[in-house]
Design brief:
This protein is mostly helical. The protein is built from 19 helices and no strands. The radius of gyration is 20 Å and the shape is globular. The C terminus is likely disordered.
Length: 337
Amino acid sequence: TELARESFREACVQDPNFVAARTFLAVASLYCGDTAGYQLNREKAAALEANDDPVEELYAIQASMYGRENTQRSVDALERYFAANPYAPVARIIRAEVMTHKGIFEQDIQAIEAATRDADIAVEEMPDSTLAKFISMFAHTHAIKLYHGEDPRAQEHIESGMRMARHFETCSWTPGHAFSAQFFRACGNLEEEHAAYERALDSGLRGFFLEEYFTHCLRRGMVPKNIDVQIDPASEPYALLMQAMVAAHDSLRRKRSIAKIQELATSEGTIDFFVAAAMEMLGADTSNFAGRDFEHKYFRATVNRDAADVLESYFRRLQNKDELIAACSEQEIDDVG
């Protein structure tokens, strides 16, 4: 992924208006744990004017789809695109991804259902496409989550998603393994979830997915064999935080792990909310955070909602709990906890 990011960065240097390169530089930055680079390049890609090339137009649409306020605009743009290009399997993949995000943002099961239909057709049209299989699994995973697993309608999504997940068992693509783990978690299969994360680690798990792996370990109360993997605190602070929380459950590592967590604290920002919650969770001294106003926007802005889910039961004991809960809508509280 790091090599891909450098390649896309070089392409952007050579042609600053190359929408596709800018879009994929944003995605590669996210997978490398560089959330600031992801945000910057996503905004640059969305701001570029799409030229007459229909593929470039697609990438411009894809670049602008992230974020609740942009999703419907992306859906409308895709509908216009399909009107002019009826057979467009790549566009179908992108529409499946856009509709999945729409379903997530709005808790809209119909949008997710539409996404799964698009993704499955794209897999049929491009049976060798790893991306099509990935988006299909992504859409089916969130359908299972919205149906809460127990609904009989979730079963067909489990079966369809399982076919995609099995593909990634023999694939060397790290995000495929990592998202397979999320799929198995949605299905309630913790053993398969852990096995998928192990495969992801073997293929070079980093960034956002590494954070999710340690969240998984914390949820299961386990200290993995690779707990001491080196993590850069500047580029991957949340992964380091979750790693330190997991390591703190090992008595030999506890003191050093708490010190690592304390070092992540800054004068302001999202990370401090989680540092305070982590310290509280571990029974460590949180007096340095007394009186701090953790605005609700920090809680909403977290990249990893699974991490928020793990810590949510502990933040209530913090001094600011009443203000935080009051600032969040009922839907936001439901989304996280």
